[in-house]
Amino acid sequence: MKRIPQDIRELEKKIARQREKESRLREPVRASAYVGAAGIGFRIAAELLSAVLIGGAIGYLIDRLFGTRPFFLTLFLLFGGAAGILNVYRLAKEEDQRKTKKE
């Protein structure tokens, strides 16, 4: 049986230490509760804002098409606001169900 040279043994030890160090660094880090809450808050803001903006854009385009200046813009802004609130309600309900499943 051949003997393994000393420098190869040392190299194997260094590789093992490095692998151990890497495995410790790759362990998942638990995110704070504030990070999740901030993400949900940004999603709520995006849902509400996008619904109002899309409703306003549709109303503006219809007003330009038919020449009925503020009527459809106002109407679709209200529809967009209602749709945004409904989306936020659904999101809150979904998050509540997800939270109760965790517990």
Mean pLDDT: 90
Helix/strand-derived category reads mainly alpha
Round the Cα radius of gyration to an integer and report it.
29 Å
Assembly annotation: single chain
Helices and strands, in order, run as HHH
Biggest pleated-sheet summary = none
Note poorly predicted spans: none
Distance between the termini: 59 Å
Fraction of residues in β-strands: under 5%
Question: How many individual β-strands?
Answer: 0
Helix share bin: over 70%
Task: Give the overall silhouette.
Answer: elongated
Put simply, the count of helices is: 3
Any descriptors?
single chain, 103 residues, mainly alpha, 85% helix
Characterise this structure:
The protein has helices at residues 6-25, 33-66, 69-102. It starts with 5 loop residues before the first helix and ends with a helix. The chain has three helices and no strands. With 103 residues, it is mainly alpha-helical. It is 85% helix and 0% strand. It is elongated, with a radius of gyration of 29 Å.
Short description:
By secondary structure, this protein is mainly α. It contains 3 helices and no strands.
Write the layout of secondary structure elements.
Blueprint lengths: L5 H20 L7 H34 L2 H34 L1
Helix pairs in contact: 2-3
